[in-house]
Amino acid sequence: MGTYRAQELRWADLPGLAGFIVMACAVYGAVLAGWRSPRLVLYVAVKLPLLFLGTTSLVAGFNWMTAGILGSGLSFKQTVFAVFAAMTISAGF
């Protein structure tokens, strides 16, 4: 993705961030459940990315509302990208 300034953020870049989160969480879930059974591997590989994307979306909305209340001047787009970029970085480790 690269380094962006606020005016260079494009909504078209968000699916790439979300896609990486889904891929990393699916692999992590599959490895985490691999000791038990193949059915559990599939279940956790689907469930964990959904859980992370849902949590990330809720946190992005909460952070946007909090930023507005505190008067930080961050737009909805900036807040969403900050939260998704942070989750992408943490999912990669």
> For the residues shown, what is the average pLDDT?
89
Give the end-to-end Cα distance, rounded to a whole number of Å. 17 Å
Largest sheet: none
Order of helices and strands: HHH
Describe this structure in words.
- There is one protein chain.
- The chain contains 3 helices and no strands.
- It has helices spanning 14-33, 38-70, 76-91.
Give a short overview:
With 93 residues, the protein is mostly helical. 74% of the residues lie in helices and 0% in strands. The chain is elongated and about 50 Å long.
Q: Which characteristics define this entry?
A:
3 helices; mainly alpha; elongated
Describe the SSE topology.
Elements: H1 14-33, H2 38-70, H3 76-91
Helix pairs in contact: 1-2, 1-3, 2-3
